Amino acid sequence: MIRLPLVLFFSAVLFSTGVYGVLARRNGVLVLMSIELMLNAVNVNLVAFSQYVRDIGGQVFALFVIAVAAAEVGIGLAIVILIFRNRESINVDEVSLLKW
Amino acid sequence: MAELIVFWVFAPLAVASGIAMLLQRNAVYSALFLVVNFFALAVFFLMLGAEFLFAVQIIVYAGAIMVLFLFVIMLLGVDREERLVEPIRWQRPLGIFLGVGITAEIFAAVRAGVGFAAKAPGGFALVNQGGNAQAIAKVLFTDYFLPFEITSILLIVAAVAAMVLAHRRRGAVSGPPPAGPARPQPDREAEVAG
Fold first, then answer.
1. What residues of chain B, 117 to 156, have a C-beta less than 8 Å from chain A?
2. Which site among A68, B93, B126, B141 is 20 to 30 Å from A25 CA-CA?
3. Cα–Cα distance, B36 to B16 (Å, whole number)
């Protein structure tokens, strides 16, 4: 049986990698991929705690996270396509219409 | 002990592929590294006693979602690489700082909340009795039935919204002057980009 903190540290590193990707990358598709990375780190946490407290609810919740992530990717990529159509670019820095 | 070996093989693999994904300038390679990452995490689910999620992870993430990503990357043009010149000078250092900072913060939170030596108590096999998928189904269709139905509504709304967003209306002004409102074929954009 693996120790819980080991898995939690691993998923923390993975989550932070995703955070860095969202903050530093400018390709809109890569930002969405980094969000997927973060959601996956959360899923690992949920499953690890599900095993730790011996409750299957964590796995059910991870399943919901996957479903919501699928919906999010669909909408997000549609928005990326729309931005590309209007601006000929998917650089998120250039999408500043709502910026004050 | 076998689990520890699996962990130390796949944890560095997952982290390395995640970091490699962010360092790639070509979006297609990034997507492929993300597939490696998803497979490594699927092995983690298997190790943690979630066989159903292992299958779902491979089918939904490595299969469906990554195909969607690759499709959009190809649609928008493959050789579209990011410029190396930073328009905002402090963005990348700040990103690294915040990434490392949140790691340290979570480490501290885990140390305070769980302790370093916390070990999962045995007997998870009891929860998984009769199969992991059956155990999940039993909970999903009783306790979590309402969230399950709401999720199905969410997915339908998302599918319709994606169609509405990506649909090109005839005669609609589709953008700034260089884009040109009177472009006949939507497929042309991919050719222009590629």
1. 117-124, 126-128, 132, 135-136, 139-140, 143-144, 147, 151, 154-155
2. A68
3. 10
Collapse the DSSP code of B119 into the 3-class scheme (helix H, G, I; strand E, B; otherwise coil) and give the result: strand
Does A10 score more than 70 pLDDT?
yes
Is there a domain that residue A95 lies in?
no
* Residue A19's CATH number: 1.10.287.3510
Domain-embedded: residue A93: no
Domain membership flag for residue A98: no
**Contact present, A27 and A8 (Cβ < 8 Å):** no
pLDDT, position B155: 93
Query: d(Cα A63, Cα B140) in Å, to the nearest integer?
Result: 10
Write the CA distances from B181 to A6, B169, B176, B177, B178, integer angstroms.
55, 11, 8, 7, 9
Most confident of B50-64, B76-90, B100-114: B50-64
CB contact under 8 A, B102 and A16: yes
Distance from CA of A28 to the nearest CA of B (A): 10
Tell me which residue range forms the domain holding A83: 4-87
Residue of chain A nearest B183, judged by CA positions: A85
Check pLDDT > 80 for residue B176.
no
Query: How many domains does one find in chain A?
Result: 1
Closest A-chain CA to B5:
A2
